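Work Package 3 (structural annotation) set out to generate three-dimensional models for the target panel prioritized at the project kickoff. During this period the team completed the workflow that converts sequence records into discrete structure tokens, so that structures can be stored uniformly alongside our sequence database. As a representative example, we reproduce one entry of 102 residues exactly as it appears in the project archive.
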Amino acid sequence: MTVARILSVCIVLGLAGAILPARAGETGQPGDGCYWCTRDAIYERTKLIALLEANPNMDEAVKGPQITAARAEIHALRATLGPPQWDWSTPCCYTRKPIHIR
């Protein structure tokens, strides 16, 4: 009886895995509409570069490829980054008339 239950659970899990596949590259990647996620990822890569460059105890041969890879990721992320999409209920302060002091 237990073998039949284990077999049925395995079949259900196998079918669920076949029916609901994850899209390639979706895990851990910021979405197209996620401006803030992309901006935060760029900030994290920039912070990583700064920490690697400031560490005198790490060999240049070790941190060099890491810095190059982080810069390439920043470049790729900036290419996907569009203008910020603000969700404000009021218009931006730059739309008002300028104030002139006499």
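The two ends are 92 Å apart (CA to CA).
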